Amino acid sequence: MTDLDASARALIEDCSRASLELLERNLTSHGILAAARTEAAEARRYTRIFGRDAAICVMAMCGSGVPALEQGAVASLEALVAQQAANGQIPKYVDPEGRDADFWYLGCIDATLWWLIAVDHVRRHGQVGPSRWQEEAGRAIGWLLAQEHQHFRLLQQNEASDWADIMPRSGYVLYTNALWYEVKRRFALDHAEATHYHFNHLFNPFQRDLPEYHRARLLQHYARRGRRDPGLYLSFVNLAVVGDEGDVFGNVLAIQGGLADTDMARRIVDTIDRAHASDPYPVRVVLHPLPRHHALWRAYMGRHRQNIVHQYHNGGIWPFVGGFWVMALARLGEQAKAWSELARLAQSNALDDWRFTEWFHGRTLAPMGMAGQSWNAATFLLALRALQGGEAAW
């Protein structure tokens, strides 16, 4: 932080305070809401406790030293698991009063992954014992294992069934399997090495090393055909269809979780840098947005003109992903760059009197989505914690 000028340091300190205040405002007795209570948020059900949003917020609230937030971290996990399905799945979101649980059109796979990661985080850094939620975690892991390929040891999923829920990723999805490896690592699950191995061969098929399994070699052949090495992991692999649009979140999580070795991690960072994905704010979540004429374009992407080029999941700027970008830079030891990016992240949250905007148009920078987005505050705090060397950063 010493490399920053006084105004940047002050902005980071202001954003830290504003982030804690926002999390407290968005906290209910049952857990953390996805966004501030506004008429628009109520209409779009953002005033719910979302599996993925809440779990990320839990990691920031736990270790914050703020009693209400520390208690809210536990309450959030409790609210989600109270509506756990009989088969072990954690809902996409729950009503804070416990009246509703939603599991998304094609199923929501990552809420369960994030819930498990947050459970481990709270066990290690919070005020609960190591066996808290033991039975429920076991059921959640069992549900995930039922979706794991028995040779690749990677999760398989439906189209549009993770955080990027109007993007056409399906089969083996980068983002989801980066989280799956993290769950395996934290819970000491079997076949973690196989998950690591096949992750790097399926999503990075441009390497010379050929896997022994003949179906893996065939998938690698399909993925390479007619393409050049993008300098990133592919966003998904599904038989003869793959995603080379440049999924920033999935790639950054691969760095954060230790799936990318040093060479691959630096290639990812260089590729994101060359695309100016964090200019002026971190970070655009797709480097090469899918236009309507693209083979992967789906009609649902154009609904309400929401996911067209440079918008929403298709190239919009998401500050909460910017927090993970900063954490990845910190993990690689790029401290000066990470602090600079954190200052720009603080600036994006501060726009419109600390609106904590959900996302911005990737070119016009128009503020879009909901105000008072909880996970913007959470990942800013996690990124700051990571740069300060805090144990509870991840």
Write the layout of secondary structure elements.
Blueprint lengths: L5 H20 L1 E2 L2 E2 L6 H5 L5 E2 H11 L5 H15 L11 E2 L6 E2 L7 H16 L8 H12 L26 E2 H14 L4 H11 L11 H11 L11 E3 L2 E3 L4 H9 L5 H13 L44 H13 L3 H20 L4 E2 L6 E2 L5 H14 L7
Antiparallel strand pairs: 1-2, 3-4, 4-5, 6-7, 7-8, 9-10
Helix pairs in contact: 1-13, 1-14, 3-4, 3-5, 3-14, 4-5, 5-6, 5-7, 7-8, 7-10, 10-11, 10-12, 12-13, 12-14, 13-14
Describe this structure in words.
With 394 residues, the chain is mainly α. Helices cover 47% and strands 6% of the residues. The strands form 4 sheets. It has a 3-stranded antiparallel β-sheet. Strand 4 and strand 5 form a beta hairpin. The longest helix is centred in the N-terminal third of the chain and has 20 residues.
Overall pLDDT score = 96
* Helix coverage percent: 40-55%
Category by helix and strand content: mainly alpha
What is the rounded distance between the termini? 20 Å
Task: Please sum up the structure shown.
The chain is mainly α. It has helices spanning 6-25, 39-43, 51-61, 67-81, 110-125, 134-145, 174-187, 192-202, 214-224, 248-256, 262-274, 319-331, 335-354, 374-387, and strands spanning 27-28, 31-32, 49-50, 93-94, 101-102, 172-173, 236-238, 241-243, 359-360, 367-368.
Keywords:
394 residues; three-stranded antiparallel β-sheet; mainly alpha
